[in-house]
Every structure is written in structure tokens, then in C-alpha cells.
């Protein structure tokens, strides 16, 4: 059994709640610049709605089969929309490059008539800072079913979906920034597509990420996880992910992702 949602949460796929991102207190516009929207067969905005008591989160993953620069198969860019019990948008977090989380706060949402989420640059990165020159597109919504998540997780190469514990639980610690990221020039995003970093102020919000976090058992240094090699237990036939991590202080330790309970384990 592979856990795709935290126990106690509910999943739905209500198109009426999506309503093309028209909410009682705001409208979310999807746009693109310098790269096209996902439109090939099998691509689109994969979504599901997670309910935790009165709270709801619309999880969206913009999925491309190929990223052309830098080239790699499968490209996933998440953004989450958090709703209150009246289906008003409380806040939004989006992938600010390399799966670092950026917060669009309730105050910012209330001060604007609408929010633009724009796919830009050749790596399909997301931003809310572009209001001109970009073009709108009509999203192709695809239900993010458990079987699709399992299929992406069980890829044993860099095309693997790297969202795990914070896909299972969109309220997980380390995902939602406490305060909005300070706005700055979008030039820092070039650090994520060029082979060499050219701006040193780009990573002020690294503490919050869509990816899994592990902490060195010797010095407590935090590392975020990317691709993890897939293994299968020959005795039980169960799959798991396992990786040896080397922290910034050169300590080595082994971690494993347990698909059954959706947790990172230290071996």
C-alpha cells in the first residue's frame, strides 16, 4: 500500500469549487511568458482538493513531459491555494524556483482585484510578479488521482516526482512561509537555470520548501531531498526510496522514504 494522503484528510475533485479559479474574494489568472503553457498530450494542471476539518487546500501541479532548458524529462511546478470554510482564498504558496515556497498573503490578496500566476523563463518557473507582456491561457485541469501520484513516485530516475511528505500533507511544517518573501528583481531566478550562480541574494527563503527536509543526526544541519533511488524489498515486494546524504559538515547518514506511512526514516 502506498500512502498518498495523510490519514484523516479527505480528497475531492469538485470542478464547481475550482470554477476556473474565480473565488468569492479574488480571481487567479494563469498566464505565460517566454515559454508556452502545458498543452501536449498528458500535460496539464493536475489538481486535487484536500480537506482538513473546515480548511481546504487546492493542490495544483503544472506538469510538462519535457523541460528543454536545462533539459530533463518531466517537469513539475506546484502551487497550493488555501481556502477558508466560505471558500475564500486565505493565502497561496507557489514554487519560487527549485521548489522553494513563496507566500502570497491574505493581505496582498485582499488588496488586489486578482492575482496573476505566470509561467515564465525556459524552466517553466512560476511568479506572481509579472503583470504586463504575458498572455493568458485556459488551463487544462486533470484530476491528480492516487494512481498518477504512484506512477510518478516509482520512476527510478530524475523524472521522479520529488514532492512527497508535503504533497501528502499541505499543512506540513517547513512548507508555508511565516511572512511573504520580500519582492525583488526576478533576475535572481536565472540562478536556477544557469550552470553558475550569478546573484548571491537569491536564496533568502530556503527554509521553506515543497521538498522533503532531513536533518543530520550529528550536527542538525538541514538538507532538502531531490531524486531518491527506488528499491524493492525482495522478501515482501514492497517499494521504498533510499539515499545516503552528506551534510554540509561532511557527515554521512542513510535515509529512507517509507511509502506505506508517507514518512522519512533514518536508517
Question: Would you write up a description of this structure?
Answer:
Strands 1, 3, 4, 5, 6, 7 and 11 form a seven-stranded mixed sheet that branches. This protein has four helices and 17 strands. The chain has 267 residues and is mainly beta. The two termini are 21 Å apart. It folds into two domains: 10-192, no CATH class; 213-266, no CATH class. The longest helix has 8 residues, at 146-153. The radius of gyration is 18 Å and the shape is globular. It has helices at 15-18, 106-110, 146-153, 165-168, and strands at residues 10-12, 27-33, 44-52, 55-68, 71-83, 89-95, 101-104, 114-120, 125-127, 135-136, 141-143, 213-215, 222-224, 230-232, 239-246, 252-258, 263-266.
Give a quick precis of the structure.
With 267 residues, the chain is mainly β. The chain contains four helices and 17 strands. The chain has two domains: 10-192, no CATH class; 213-266, no CATH class.
Helix and strand arrangement:
Blueprint (H helix, E strand, L loop, with lengths): L9 E3 L2 H4 L8 E7 L10 E9 L2 E14 L2 E13 L5 E7 L5 E4 L1 H5 L3 E7 L4 E3 L7 E2 L4 E3 L2 H8 L11 H4 L44 E3 L6 E3 L5 E3 L6 E8 L5 E7 L4 E4 L1
Parallel strand pairs: 2-8, 3-11
Antiparallel strand pairs: 1-3, 2-10, 3-4, 4-5, 5-6, 6-7, 8-9, 12-13, 14-15, 15-16, 16-17
Order of helices and strands: EHEEEEEEHEEEEHHEEEEEE
Form type = globular
Query: What is the number of strand segments?
Result: 17
Stretches where pLDDT falls below 50 for ≥5 residues?
A: 201-205
From the alpha carbons, calculate the radius of gyration and give it in angstroms: 18 Å
Overall mean confidence score, pLDDT:
89
Amino acid at each position: 500500500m502506498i500512502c498518498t494522503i495523510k490519514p484523516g484528510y479527505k480528497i475531492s475533485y469538485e470542478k464547481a469549487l475550482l470554477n476556473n479559479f474565480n473565488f468569492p474574494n479574488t480571481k487567479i489568472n494563469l498566464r505565460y511568458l517566454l515559454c508556452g503553457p502545458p498543452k501536449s498530450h498528458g500535460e496539464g494542471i493536475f489538481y486535487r482538493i484536500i480537506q482538513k476539518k473546515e480548511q481546504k487546500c487546492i493542490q495544483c501541479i503544472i506538469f510538462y513531459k519535457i523541460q528543454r532548458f536545462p533539459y530533463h524529462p518531466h517537469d513539475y511546478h506546484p502551487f497550493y491555494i488555501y481556502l477558508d470554510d466560505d471558500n475564500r482564498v486565505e493565502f497561496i504558496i507557489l514554487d519560487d524556483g527549485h521548489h522553494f515556497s513563496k507566500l502570497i498573503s491574505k493581505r496582498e490578496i485582499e488588496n488586489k482585484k486578482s492575482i496573476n500566476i505566470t509561467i515564465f523563463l525556459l524552466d517553466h518557473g512560476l511568479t506572481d510578479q509579472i503583470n504586463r507582456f504575458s498572455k493568458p491561457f485556459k488551463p487544462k485541469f486533470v484530476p491528480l488521482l492516487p494512481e498518477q501520484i504512484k506512477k510518478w513516485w516509482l520512476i527510478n530516475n530524475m523524472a521522479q516526482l520529488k514532492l512527497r511528505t508535503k504533497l501528502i500533507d499541505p499543512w506540513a511544517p517547513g512548507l508555508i512561509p511565516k511572512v511573504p518573501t520580500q519582492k525583488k528583481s526576478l533576475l535572481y531566478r536565472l540562478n536556477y537555470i544557469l550552470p553558475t550562480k550569478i546573484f548571491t541574494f537569491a536564496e533568502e527563503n530556503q527554509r521553506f520548501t515543497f521538498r522533503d527536509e532531513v536533518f543530520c543526526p550529528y550536527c542538525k544541519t538541514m538538507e532538502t531531498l531531490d531524486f531518491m533511488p527506488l528499491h524493492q524489498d525482495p522478501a515482501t515486494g514492497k517499494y521504498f526510496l533510499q539515499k545516503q546524504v552528506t551534510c554540509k559538515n561532511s557527515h554521512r547518514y542513510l535515509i529512507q522514504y517509507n511509502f506505506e506511512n508517507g514518512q522519512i526514516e533514518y536508517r
